[in-house]
Amino acid sequence: MAGIYIHIPFCRQKCYYCDFYKTVNQNLTSVFLNALANEIVSRKFFLQNEPVETIYFGGGTPSVLTENELAEILNLLHKEFTVTPDAEITFEANPDDLNQAYLTSLFHAGINRLSIGIQSFHDEHLKKMNRRHTAKQAVNSVENAVKSGFNNISIDLIYGLPGLTSQQWKHSLNSAFQLPAEHLSAYHLTYHEGTPFYTWLKKGTLTELSENESVEQFNILLDSCLDAGFEQYEISNFARKRNKKYSKHNTAYWTGGKYLGLGPSAHSFDGETRRWNVAHVEAYCNAIENKSSYFQEEQLSEKDKFNEYILTNIRTKWGLSPGTISERFGKNKADYFAREIEKYIQNKKVTEHNGIFTLTREGLFVSDDIMANLMII
């Protein structure tokens, strides 16, 4: 299984918490799309003709694209790669971009999964994050998407926000559950250096939630999802149990699948090497036009591959397998894993079932420490 990720680097305005590469200079859109087309053609062999089962438009804000711009990208991908007939094609979008006409155009272009960046169902917090939409627009975007034919919709929410109460967090979750969405991604706010939130935190003009409040909101997330019939299949990702519409694209990341990243700041992985494109739209476009290098690359050692297996798989319901470790990395690393995992079994941070090791609820809270201790430095 192989996937393609396309980074659309444009936003209409910047959110105060986001550290993904983006620009508000949409005058560069035409030049970028030409460069992207050239990159698609030049990297057609990166996946070694493996069938493409997922395509993911991320950003930035992909919903700044017009119907025709999106269709041209998809047509070229289908021309240059072997895209399976049932490929999952995900499109990230902001609620305020999703009017009925645009949603219908997305559906007819071939998009079959929407990831809607709602973040909150409270207008005060949306304003605090510098989001452009309202809570009402968020609700309308999901309902209109269903009317346009979509039956695979994911909602993004953020908790741990300054001033967010547990009652408000419960309300946002319940609002999400009442909508016809099959998937929820819920992330705790991170203060990334270079973002306004980080600057205000350091200046003392913004107050971070306490650790106890953050833990409480994570517990609310887990309990609420369980009660609403959502299965946690990765630390921050949940799908309705009745349909199990996991994100196939992100699941491939977590389980070691190959993927090609296109556009500025996009990452690629072919099982042996990792590449990452320059995180600057003008530098990216100029380099492609001049046929010069626009990415960096590293060859992964066996230790790197083992560490990545630990880092990604432990996050999921599919967990870590000593058998897989032995087969892929050798008996010595399997023995190392068996020794290191034992203490987490004893303190009930990890559980084992049929030879698969997964995090317990208690383990979820210290997952970063467990990952770090299981990796080989």
Question: Can you walk through the features of this model?
Answer:
The chain is of the alpha/beta class. The chain is 42% helix and 21% strand. The chain folds into two domains: 2-252, Aldolase class I (TIM Barrel, Alpha-Beta Barrel), CATH 3.20.20.70; 301-377, Arc Repressor Mutant, subunit A (Orthogonal Bundle), CATH 1.10.10. The protein has 15 helices and 14 strands. The strands form three sheets. A nine-stranded mixed β-sheet has the order 7-8-6-5-4-3-2-1-9, with helices on both faces. Helix 1 (29-42) runs parallel beside helix 2, helix 2 (67-80) packs parallel to helix 3 (100-109) and helix 6 (166-177) packs parallel to helix 8. The longest helix is centred in the middle third of the chain and has 17 residues, at 211-227. The model has no long low-confidence stretch (mean pLDDT 96).
List the helices and strands and how they pair.
Elements: E1 2-8, H1 29-42, E2 52-59, H2 67-80, E3 83-93, H3 100-109, E4 113-119, H4 123-128, H5 135-147, E5 153-159, H6 166-177, E6 183-188, H7 196-203, H8 211-227, E7 230-234, E8 237-240, H9 248-254, E9 258-262, E10 267-269, E11 273-277, H10 281-289, E12 295-299, H11 302-313, H12 322-329, H13 331-346, E13 350-353, E14 356-359, H14 361-364, H15 367-374
